[in-house]
Amino acid sequence: MNPYRIKKAVTNFLTGEYFTDALRVTISIVLPAWVLFAYDLPQAAIAVAHGALLIGLTDSRGTIGDKQTTSVVSILLFFFVSVISSLSWPYPWLMGGIFFTVTLGCAMLMVYGSRFSITGTAAIILMIFIWGLKPANGLEFSLYLLAGGIWFYIVSLVQLRIWPARYLNYAIADCLLATHDFLKAKALFYDIQVPLADCYNKAIHLHSHVSEKQEQVRSILLRDKSAMQAENRQGQALLFAASRSIDLYEQITAIHHDYGFLRHAFKVTGALDLVGQMIGLMADDIRDISEMEPFKNPEEPGLASARQMPLLEARFVYIIQKEDEVNARILSKLLANLKQIYEDIRLIYGALRNYNEFLPKNEPQPEYNYFAPFQDFGWSQLATNFRFSSPIFKFSLRLAITCLFCYSLANILPLGKYSYWILITVVVIMKPAFSLTRKRNMQRLTGTLIGVALALVILALVQSTTLLLAWFMIFLVGFFTFNRTHHMLSVVSLTPMVIIALNVYGNSDPGFIVERVYDTLIGCAIAFAATYMFPFWEAGRLPFLMKEVLKANTNYLQNLLHAISGKPENVTGYKLSRKNVYIMQANLSAAFQRMLGEPKNKITETENIYHFQMLNHILCSNIASLFLLFRSGLLELNKEGEQKRIDQAIGSLQESIRLIEQLNESVASNRAGITKRHDEAPDNQHEHHDQLHLLIDVVDDIRYCSKALQISKF
Fold first, then answer.
1. With b meaning 16 or more CB within 10 Å and e meaning fewer, what string describes 231-262?
2. Cβ atoms 573, 369 nearer than 8 A
3. Which residues touch 525 (CB under 8 Å, ≥6 apart)?
4. From CA 524, how far away is CA 530, in angstroms rounded?
5. Which residues have a Cβ under 8 Å from the Cβ of 461 and sit 6 or more positions away?
6. Which end of the chain is flanked by fewer CB atoms within 10 Å, N or C?
7. What integer pLDDT is reported at residue 458 of this predicted model?
8. CB proximity list for 149: less than 8 A, separation 6 or greater
């Protein structure tokens, strides 16, 4: 990495969302605590700091409405949990019942999404802290805790009122950065040194990341009433940039051809290198746009690639002119696709550079209200999941039983004064998926050991209380900076922060540091063992997800058939079907990756499922290419042959859906030779020049792959 990029990375980190939010959270926690300590109210300072810290944990990216709802629910829930825990801790049997009930109920908040899942986890941690701290006056402690939560809530709302579009800007930037990563991965397809299997593996993995970022943009933007108002020029510019960034991803996805044929036919012409260079320049442009501050520098000279792209295009045109008619047509389509991507990048850049000069194109717009993620906060949503077949209920029951076991263990065995660390470790580590729990286990152990080493070094070298408090604040900022992005680094910050705080508070006995280590070890061991209680293995869910991917692609293809049949364009239906394909593919990819982290005897059919994912990725790319051909007039309206071939593809997909639905039925057929690899150099080149023929070819491969999965009985 060159010095400029290093400097840029440091600047982006220091001015980015996570670090600046961490500074705000740290100040919001430390400031009231410092004032109360100055007035000799240590218990009040601790309670207020805890209240602010807990609401800070729930303070994630979202709209003002999201912040208000989450904060109010969290404040009331934390106060309730604090009161009942403070009144119950002197009575071990009663506290045990509270542990089980509160843990089960708060873990079930996961049914309402990630925001309330974090709130539930924070409430459980609060209960554990109160059991460990054992406040003498429970009601007073709870009232101070309530005051700390309200204080942080006010600070958070003030920030959003001053910078209302802050989180939306960051969400769009993250979406563009994820698109940059995906575009860089697409460049690898044109590098003959990189195996195609590795290219597909990386593209499928990155697709999940892009889909997640796109959904977050929709969640914030489309539910922000102010930004969606037509008279809000800034909001409309952000809406255009967000919409174009998703359309841009479709354009990038549509850079799909028979890569085996392309590599075979053009490896010595220089065309592949030129494509790689052009994609690299455009990826750098997207990265630069993601790093710019919207609407702040309207006089910027323009995109960095402005000089080089025309030269590369001219060289590409020269190569096209030297090719025969068939190959020239393939390269011309590829160049047209690349030019459209570059045009979309320029439009996004123009919209974010200066909203006053932004003029949206006069083109059909979808009904955006259909794209905002639906959130059901009714009691029925919770009641529906209160059954043993629900993965969320299984996890909640598992966590509640594990916490009750740890609580009982701490009461029976002399585990030390800080045995509540065992429970905190369990709550933080345990996740619904086995693979995520195992990953958290390793991160927690590694982070704790590194953090303990840091704390020992600091305590050995620093004697001044003022300097120790300065280190405490540094680690507190570090914890909140990495809390949502890198668990191990957050633990590396959390461990010395806690040790330094206890040391300053009066516990200078080094024995509690050793206790911190073995409590973490015990907590990690218990959390890992508990994952085998009411387990939920991903392999059992994969057939359902594969079927949903096929249904989504079928609907996507039916929208294409609707378009070329001459019926009025349905922009909303088309974009909804595209969105659903992206989400279903991301869900399947995420579940498959989680399965790979499970015990070996629970992993099944990895080769066929990976091949199935690859084929669906190719199918989605082909459909996107056909949509682009249709818009450019190269796919004719009402052409009977084209409609018939798309109907044929839809039929093959529907047959694949039936095969996946019958996975557990026995089929008397020979499995050998059923799957076939795609993207190998073809025998008949002319067959692969027709995009519709590619479509038929890939859906046939999907049908063969589905049959292989069915015959294997999964």
1. ebebbbbbbbbbbbbbbbbbbbbbbbbbbbbb
2. no
3. none
4. 10
5. none
6. N
7. 92
8. 51, 52, 54, 55, 71, 74, 75, 78, 79
**Whose CA is closest to 402, among 216, 591, 531, 568?**
531
Reduce the DSSP state of residue 568 to 3 states and report it.
coil
Distance between CA atoms of residues 501 and 508, nearest Å: 10
**Nearest partner of 543 among 393, 710, 390, 711, judged by Cα:** 710
| Tokens representing residue 488 in the block | 């191990």
Torsion of the alpha carbons at 478, 481, 484 and 487, rounded to the nearest 10: -20
CA 126 – CA 83 distance, rounded (Å): 11
Counted residue by residue, the chain has a size of 714
| Distance in angstroms (rounded) separating the CA atoms of residues 335 and 257 | 12
pLDDT of residue 197: 87
d(CA 5, CA 2): 5
DSSP 8-state code for residue 61: S
Q: Which of 512, 508, 507 is nearest to 495 (CA)?
A: 512
Is the CB of residue 530 less than 8 Å from the CB of residue 409? no
Q: Is 475 helix (H, G, I), strand (E, B) or coil?
A: helix
Say if CB 48 and CB 147 are below 8 A apart: yes
In whole angstroms, give the CA distance from residue 523 to residue 446. Answer: 14
Q: What are the residues whose beta carbons fall under 8 Å from the beta carbon of 512, sequence distance 6 or more? A: 416, 417, 418, 499, 502
d(CA 674, CA 705): 7
pLDDT tens, 120-173?
999 999 999 899 888 888 899 999 999 999 999 999 888 888 888 888 889 999
Give the C-alpha separation, 358 to 339, whole Å: 21
Q: Where are the alpha helices (DSSP H) in 387-486?
A: 391-412, 420-429, 434-461, 465-482
Cβ proximity of 421 and 519 under 8 Å: yes
* Nearest Cα to Cα of residue 19 among 707, 337, 479, 667: 479
Closest CA to 242 of 312, 166, 317, 173: 173
Residue type, 30: V
Whether the pLDDT of residue 665 is over 50: the answer is: no
Question: 460 near 450, Cβ under 8 Å?
Answer: no
